[in-house]
Every structure is written in C-alpha cells, then in structure tokens.
Design goal:
The complex is a heterodimer of chains A (45) and B (526). With 45 residues, chain A is mainly alpha-helical. Chain A has one domain. Chain A is 78% helix and 0% strand. Chain A has one helix and no strands. Chain B is globular and about 65 Å long. Chain B is built from 16 helices and two strands. Chain B is 65% helix and 1% strand. Chain B has one domain: Cytochrome C Oxidase, Chain A. Chain B has a two-stranded antiparallel sheet. With 526 residues, chain B is mostly helical. The chains are: A mainly alpha (45), B mainly alpha (526). At the A-B interface, helix 1 of A face helix 4, helix 5 and helix 6 of B.
C-alpha cells in the first residue's frame, strides 16, 4: 500500500486489484504459451 | 475540454537532491526524463550500428567488418532500436504526459515505475556486453529463428536474459499505464474525453501485456533447447522450427503496433493544435486504434508466406492483413480532414507530424504490397522489406517521438527551444531519411537480398546513395541532441500554454516547466 501515497482507500483497493489482475494475466499468457507449445509438440506424429 | 484547476504547486515543489533523486525516483516526471534520456542514448548506439552497416554497404566487397560481425551489428541494431530506443521513448512520454493529461498527481504505482526503468540499463548492459564474449553477440537476426540462433555461442543466454528483462520492464510499465488511466482520471473525465495520446497508450499497454509474455516464453524455450536438452524447436531432436516462427510472429506483429500506436496518439494531439481545430472524428479515431490492435492478433503468418502453408491460410492472412488498411485509412483521412481549412502554422512539431503523415503512409502502402501472398514471394527477404519497415519505423515512429519532444519540451523545461535549429533538424532529417530508405525499394525490387554484408555490383549506385542519406540522417541527429541540451539550460521563457493555439489538454493548465508535484488536488473536467 505504501506505493499508493496519493490515493484514497477505495481507489487504492481498485488500483491493487487492477495491478494484480493484469500481472496474473501476463503470467498466465507466459505459462499458457509454453503449455500450448508442449501440447502442440505432443500432437506431432 | 475545460478544467477548473487548483494550482497549489508552489507550496509543494520541493524535490529530492543528488543521485538519490534518480536512483530512488518515484516521481513520474523524473522517471519520464530518465526513460527519455536512456532512449536517446540507445538511439545513438543503435544509430552508430546502423552507420556501421551503411559504411560496409557503401560499395560491394568486404571493406571494414567480417561477415560474422556484420550479422551481429544487424541483429543488435534491431534489438537496441526496438527495445532500447523506440519503446522506452514512448514509455518516457507516457510517464511525463499521462498523469498531466488525465489530471493525476502521479502514476498509480510509482515504485513499480522505478523498477521498470532501472531494469533497462541492466538489460542493455547485458545485451551490449555480449559483443565482448569470445563468440561475439547474437548474429541470427532479431527474430532469433532456430536452428540458426541455437548455433550461437555463449553470448546466447546474455541476449535471452536481456530480452527477459526488457519484457519484464515493458509489462510492468504497461500495467502501470492501464492502472493509472483506469483509476486516476480527474473527476468528469470519462473515457471518451480521454486525450488520444492516453487512448493510444491504453490500447498499446493491453497489447504489451498480451504479447510480451509470448516472446518471453519463446526465448525461454530456445534457452532450454540450447542448454537443457529439450527439442521444442530444434529439428535435430525432432523439434519444429516453424512452430517458433508462429510463436515469434504472434508476438512480433502486435509488437509492430506497439511501436506505432503511441505515435498515432502523438500526431492526433499535435495536428489539431497547429490546425486550430478540434480533431476530426475523435470517436472514430478511438475505434480505429482499437480495431488495429485487434487485427494485429490475426495477421501474424503474413511474415511467413514463403515458409509454406495451406492455401486457406495464405488467403486468410492476406485478407486479414489488407483489412488493417481500413482503420489506418480512417486515421489518415481524419488527420487530413482535421487540417482541411484549418488555420495552419508550421512549427517543428507540426512539420514532423505532416512528414509522419506522408512518409508513414508510404510505409503503409508498401506493407499492402507485401500483404499480397503471390507478390510477397518476390519481395520476401529483399531490401524492399527493409525499405518498408524502416519507412514505418523511422519517419513513422521516430518522427512522431521527435514531434512529441518538440511539442512538449517547453512544458518540461520551461524554455522555448531554438526554432531555427529545429527547422534545420527537420529538413535535414526529412530529406536524408528519404535518400536513405527510398532507394532500398529499388534495390529490393531488383533482387538485392537483406542481411548480407556484400552484394553484386549492379546494386552499387543505389547503395551508395542510401549510405550517403544514412550518414546525413545520422549526423543530423546531433543537432537534435544539441538543441535539447540548449533548451534544458536556457532559452526564452515558455508560457503555460506554450503554443499560440487553443490548446485544450489539462497539461497546458499547469505552468511551464510543469511543477514537480502537479494536480495534488484533482482538477474538475467539465
């Protein structure tokens, strides 16, 4: 929370939710693409 | 847009001093400045590599470098310019301008902002240090296609880790932009009142979060193929190198739009100012930007027509690529219509924006030519492609960055700059950039392949012309650097509005230079 020295508490909560949400999306894309590649490689004869 | 502002800046304008101000910076203006300076340094380093390339290509035969080093220059010129110069310059502009344009006191996540910047010098030290390893730097092209890239020496992990770090920095920067715009707009500023620079950046930030992890995944798999015995892409172990190309371009094509959408935003700010008219078709501009971003995800295989794919695939990727011309056309016509019957003046930001409009469109048209699958078989891997993407990126993205600097520099420094020098910089750059890149269309159509240090004698004349243009363009940029230094140090005092025009953005309601802390009390947008 210490980063959010300008924000009120409702705004700070929303900022936290957005930041974590987007960070999780980025990690899922990273893991997802490696997973898709492994799955695709397995599909090869 | 009218805003009621409470400028209490004078009471709170104390700022930290010494090296700590920069190392521990959380102020969006300081971090923006660091990004912009970093980008300028990288532009000079990447530019020096480009001059090396043009020096070698001045005439046929091997003059200065061995072919291996030439390939290292080509590869790292691209990586430095894309990830070190253009992207950080846009992030720097975002840091400076987004809080000022939406009436926020800072970015939403100031410490993450600090991390995202300070990762960059480490990433590029790693990348550039790889030149000094026994095997030299990466030399397989910025696309890092296997199996060629897997034959690299021990500099390979340095390049891969540098790309990981750049990606991490970009993702954190993108999260910060989205979170700031979605949460910290001044009361009354609905999304459809957002300045177009912010809109363009918001959409770009979503693109970054969607595709930078894809690149990170791809290079991680290359790394495990190289060092941990996996065979994702290594055909020697049963891997599929074409799979890498699909994954790379699924990142790579949206990346092209990451490099150009903020430029669209900048030009959409500048043209109305110097036309003294509101932007024509604001809503259409927003929807066009979003459409371009959406389309960027379904066109990737147009980079791979000659790799071989089913006819249906060729048709799909050709048609979807050509569709991009529609929203892009909407933007070009809207900028033109904004100027129509406007009370035009031609200050340096406007000159660079008009040059952008003409020259980016040339790059767009050659892109349409390349989108035609049967024609692409002829153009693929020739200098025509080099001419195409340099028209999009240099008089496109780079000119837009220069336009932005000339537009907002008085707001940042509080000084007007030397207009005469800026005009010289504009004309020298615009003439020489065409001497540099236009002949490369002819070379490509005549069959000169790209990424080679030597060529057949029939290509000599246009290569000489191109190299001369390159050297004039390169050295003209020293004027730009000198002008910025001059403007930071001294110059006529800039007013809050800066330009003799009806500028409406919130950034023009704060004094010049913008106070260290601005909008601590949010303005109300009516």
């Amino acid at each position: 929370m210490s980063d959010l020295h300008h924000a009120d508490s409702t705004q700070a909560q929303s900022i936290q939710r957005w930041a974590w949400g987007l960070g999780v999306v980025a990690i899922l894309v990273f893991v997802g693409f490696i997973g898709l590649t492994i799955w695709q490689a397995g599909a090869h004869p | 847009m009218h805003a009621v502002t409470h400028d209490d800046a004078h009471d709170h304008d104390h700022k930290p001093h010494g090296i700590g101000r920069w190392l521990f910076a959380t102020n969006h203006k300081d971090i923006g400045t660091m990004y912009l300076v970093f980008a300028l340094v990288m532009f000079m380093i990447g530019g020096a590599m480009a001059l090396g390339i043009r020096l070698e290509l001045f005439k046929p035969g091997m003059q200065f470098f061995d072919p291996g080093f030439y390939n290292q220059l080509v590869t790292n010129h691209a990586l430095v310019m894309i990830f070190g110069a253009v992207m950080p310059a846009f992030v720097g502009l975002a840091n400076w301008m987004i809080p000022l344009q939406i009436g926020a006191p800072d970015m939403a996540l100031p410490r993450m902002n600090n991390y995202s910047f300070w990762i960059m010098p480490f990433a590029f030290t790693l990348l550039l240090a790889s030149f000094f390893t026994p095997s030299g730097a990466a030399a397989g092209g910025w696309t890092l296609y296997p199996p060629l890239s897997l034959q690299a020496g021990n500099s390979f992990p340095m390049t891969v880790f540098a790309i990981h770090l750049m990606g991490l920095s970009s993702i954190m920067g993108a999260i910060n932009v989205i979170v700031t715009i979605m949460n910290m707009r001044a009361p009354g500023m609905s999304l459809l009142k957002l300045p177009l620079f912010c809109w363009a950046w918001l959409i770009t930030a979503y693109l970054l979060i969607a595709v930078m992890p894809v690149l990170a995944g791809a290079v991680t798999m290359l790394l495990t193929d190289h060092y941990f015995g996996t065979s994702f892409f290594n055909p020697a172990g049963g891997g599929d190198p074409v799979m890498f190309q699909h994954i790379f371009w699924f990142f790579g094509h949206p990346e092209v739009y990451i490099l150009i959408l903020p430029a669209f935003g900048i030009v959409s700010e500048i043209i109305p100012t110097f036309s003294r008219k509101p932007l024509f078709g604001y809503d259409a501009m927003v929807y066009a930007t979003a459409s371009i971003a959406f389309l960027s995800f379904i066109v990737w295989a147009h980079h791979m027509f000659t790799v071989g794919m089913p006819l249906a695939g060729q048709l799909f990727f050709m048609m979807s690529t050509m569709l991009i011309a529609i929203p892009t056309g909407v933007k070009v016509f809207n900028w033109t219509t904004t100027m129509w019957r406007g009370s035009l003046t031609f200050e340096p930001p406007m000159l660079f924006s008009i040059a952008f409009l003409f020259l980016f469109t040339i790059g767009g048209f050659s892109g349409l030519m390349l989108a035609l699958t049967p024609a692409d078989y002829q153009y693929q891997d020739t200098y025509f492609v080099v001419a195409h993407f340099h028209y999009v990126l240099v008089p496109g993205a780079v000119f837009a960055i220069m336009a932005a600097v000339y537009y907002w520099l008085p707001k940042w420094t509080g000084h007007m700059y030397n207009m005469r020098l800026a005009n010289w910089h504009f004309w020298l750059s615009t003439i020489s950039v065409n001497i540099l890149f236009f002949p490369q269309h002819f070379l490509g159509l005549a069959g000169m392949p790209r990424r080679i240090p030597d060529y057949s004698v029939q290509f000599t004349d246009w290569n000489m012309v191109s190299s001369i243009g390159g050297f004039i363009f390169g050295f003209s940029q020293l004027l730009f650097v000198w002008l910025i230094i001059q403007c930071v140090r001294s110059g006529e005092k800039a007013t809050a509005r800066v330009w003799d025009a009806d500028t409406t953005g919130l950034e023009w309601t704060v004094p010049s230079p913008a106070p260290y802390h601005s909008f601590e009390t949010p303005p109300h947008v009516e």
